[in-house]
Amino acid sequence: MLKFVKRMIDFSGPYRGRLYLAFFYSFLESVFIQAPILVLLYALLKISAQILVAADVLFMVAALLASVVCRMFFRRLLEALETTTGYRMFADERMRMGDRLKQMPMGYFSEGAIGDVTAVITSDITFIEQYGMIVLARTVSATISITITALMLAIFDYRIGIIAAVAALAAFSVMAHLRRNGRELSPQRQQVQSDLVGSVLEFVNGMHVIKAFNLTGEKGVAARKGFKHFRDIMITFEKRFIPPFFLLDTCIAAGTAGVICMAAFFSVNQSMDAAFALVLVIFAFEVFVPIKIVAGGIAQTKVAEAGLDRYQAIMSAPVIDEGAGERKPERFDIEFNQVEFAYDTTPVIRDMSFRISEKSMTALVGPSGSGKSTVASLIARFWDPQSGEIRIGGVNIREMTCDALLAHISMVFQKVYLFNDTILNNIRFGRPGATMDEVVAVCKKARCHAFISDLEEGYHTVVGEGGCTLSGGERQRISIARAMLKDAPIVLLDEATASVDPDNERHIQEAISELVKDKTLVVIAHRLSTIKTADHILVINKGGILESGKHEDLMALKGLYHGLWTRRVRARSWQMSRIDSDERSKFCKSG
Amino acid sequence: MTGIKQVFAYAGEHRRKLYLAFSLILASVVIGLIPYVIAYDIVLRLIQNDVLTGSYILTMSGLVFGALTLKNLFYYWGLSASHDAAYDTLMGMRVSFADKMMSMPLGEIHRKGAGSLKKNIVDDIDSMEELLAHMIPEGIPYLMAPVIVFTILLVLDWRLGLLSMGSIPFGVVAMALMMKIGTKQMDGFYRSAEKMNAVIVEYVTAMNIIKIFGRTTDSFDRYVRSVEQYRDKALAWRKSIWNYMAVYTAVLPCTLMLLLPVGCLLYINGTVSLERFLLSIMLSLGLGGTLVKLLDFLPTLPILSYKIGELEKTFQGAELTQGTETPEFTHCDIAFDRVSFGYGGEDDAEAVSNVSFTASQGSLTAIVGESGGGKSTLAKLLVHYWDVKSGAIRIGGKDIRMLSLPGLMSLVSYVSQDTFLFNTTIGENIRVGRPGATEEEVVRAAKQAMCHDFISGFENGYDTRVGDGGDRLSGGEKQRITIARAILRDAPVIILDEATAFTDSENEDRIQAALNRLIHGKTVIVIAHRLSTITGADNILVMDRGCLAAQGSHDELLASCIIYQNLWTSHQAAMDWRIRHEEVAHA
Fold first, then answer.
1. Is the ipTM of this complex over 0.85?
2. pLDDT, tens digit (0-9, with 9 covering 90-100), for B359-384
3. Contacting residues for B108 by C-beta, under 8 A, at least 6 apart
4. Residue B559 pLDDT class (50, 70, 90 cuts)
5. Number of A:B CB contacts under 8 A?
6. How far apart are the first and last CA of chain B?
7. B118: which chain A residues are within 8 Å (Cβ-Cβ)?
8. Alpha-helix runs per DSSP H in B298-434
9. In chain A, positions 109-148, which contact chain B (CB-CB < 8 Å)?
10. What pLDDT is attached to residue B62?
11. Between chains, do B570 and A505 touch, taking CB under 8 Å as contact?
């Protein structure tokens, strides 16, 4: 419990002072919560001594009112402090996280990692921000209350103090057991959670298949089974906490009964003032309340702590090693010198050396998984190679910061991603601060001005998920316009494989031609036309360069390139037809 | 209170467990008053200076312990029942929303997207667990307990009873105001939370673009803005309620507020006995713990109600018009009869307007046109992704709205670029096409779809699980498995997105061979992008801005239709294109 408190204090950074203040207010509030009982004791003592008069009542009214007003006051201060601190602190954290993520190597952003990061941001942080602060302040003030009560009891009557202490210690040891229990279950809980997510995603993603193949019954049952499994496991988890909690409450019950019993007994044998015994009999019910408050926060602290763990794991993942110097290349030829690169332990690029001259066009060709996309990613420093050097204009790219390097590079990805924002802002992403005229000019070159102008809201149309529906080709042209606006001397182009409409395809091709004018172009080529016109073709297989040269040279080699080329030429001349079985067997053999 | 009612609806058959939980926890609250009554007796004797005997002390403290333990026993028993009820209710919600999803038009599901539906069914419902498992079953007894105590007090002495309720009106007024104002602000808060999360997810997903264009969070201002807006909305919401919260949190549990001073006056005047006065005070004290818990519980009610409301709104989509018929068909001619359809509201532009054509059994019909012309909408209407706005689509003379979805789907296979595979073995994924197909039939379909070879290459062959290293399957391989599935299904009508043939540039020839096998002898409707593939089609439909501009064979259209001529020219040019055409020519 205290560990959590310490962690949150460490975590709070500049908000530490506000956190301490919150603890203080919370403690003051809890003092005033007890105040009405003190007034009651005052009245009872007067009644007991038979000296209660009307004038005392006035004092009581004043004291009660004061206690309520003070509590209100500190509650209000605390409420404001807790929420403002929580939300401000985590707004800052979200900003920090954004910056940190940007410095991580692209390798970090695999499918799974994106899911994890998203989960941490959307649920973990939100939970800590909403409940963490409240639990924290409560826990701290309850702990202070426990300490003070123990001290007071020890001063007034050590015997009662011992009874209370024994009960409290027993309760705390049960609590320690509870926390262990929670820690053990936590990974299992996450497993069940991710199973549930898996089954729901399969159900939702596969809905069209489920419907098309009439699996509504079968898959509906499977989904239900998933829901039921989740419920069963969660119920067993919850129930494991019930016996220890009951035990904890039994310790407290025993403590309460013990204090009452002993107080009465001591007053009978005259070793305690009757008035003090009376105070204790009523107070016996209040003494252990802070322990219950602390115990009540256990579940939430567990969740918050697990969330903090995940958040800090992300924040401490290694960032890419930023070069010290701001060396600027004067020219833009690209050189690979004995480059080796592996994802984890799987080698992807092996001993690769080549040179791409400035303002030339180089096509990377090869089977999928050969490593051709990795070459482009290494140039952009999405990853760093394990050994060897990559130089641009003679400068090792490790000697540049990522920002400085990427200032020289435009990249068009195979999978077009448009932000959920206006078309204008999507294009301006290439160069914030570009004027409207500049944006329109590149859009004309990228062959997208015409269709944008046709939209009702023109450049201010919102695109992206849930936005206006653009065709794949139109989206591609917008992404080209974006890259064009950046106007970098090196262009890395991952050609889209998906086929688009003929009209669109021509527009895209024209747009690409505009983009690469006078640039050093590296293209991950899928289309025959692109490959054939390249100044230089690198045929990549299993992470190494197998063949290189111009189209004609490579064809003459009759090697891998020749094979790839002929198959693609044949595929291009495909005609859709319902062939008869003889021809079919011919096809099967050729595959 | 509506929140509670909504929850009850989902508890369904498990409602009895909820009632059980209520009764147990209520019993526990009532039993919890006994120690205070005992304490009252001791206090009274101490004040009156009575002599306490040892056996009296032991009995009384034993009773305190016994009553407390009994109270705890009932409480945790009730809590256990309430967890059952809560998770049953969550399951009830999930089942109910999953069922609703099955009757939603597929188009609607695609529009919402898997991510957001997953969030609804998993995260949103999960976020209610805490509220349900503790708040509902505990909260209601906590609401009832004060009523019981006040009734006892009223019977005991009506003046004292009224006095002990003194703090209630202030608390209730503050709380009502809090709920009224808070609910208004809550909407803004949750909306901004949703927006911020969407932006952050976008930021993470599009990290490659962020990097390549050198944006930091500072300049990626949508990120900053959404985070700040969320913070401000959250603070605005809390700010709007924190005064009220402070008032009721301080006032409500202070039951002694009027009872103590006025009670003292009554006692001094001799109009109330010490016994009654003391007993009412002790009972009020006994209520303290319950009221504190009530304070935790009440503010969560509007949140719960809001969340359920949002979920229900999401799943309140229009349902598809479906019949129940699965008639025997003698022929599978397809007819579009003046079909119109629009994605948006009534006045929105139509994606397809007034399209009529027929495709006779065994023919190959191609749909061509610029993107946005309505090609794929036509295809999706035929598989009943949506209902048409006007007109009718008939297969074998039967309006598809009269058919049950399984009935329609037994006639039509839709092969698109989407290659969804279930997380099971490759063999099972193919068998989805026809459950009960023999091993041989599955292998035959796989051979025809050109995937037998690579499947046999795996260690476990057809028993290889798709999920384990799903990365092992390339896009083209997945595509061919879905084609094998469709081949096994052997539906008489095939709707085909021609782009399917080009999902994997490396293995285009294999996919093409598989497709040729699939469409053998079928009625085929193909959405075509590369015109050269469909020059041999029996009929070509030229779509232009949602309208059917012309139809006919390739030669007829080349001769008569300007749109088609342009498409053909563009296509030819695209096939010949080279980057830096001119430069290379000069070089």
1. no
2. 988 899 999 987 777 888 888 899 88
3. B317, B318, B386
4. very high
5. 483
6. 80
7. 197, 200-201, 204
8. 300-314, 375-382, 405-409, 426-431
9. 109, 114, 117-118, 121-123, 126
10. 95
11. yes
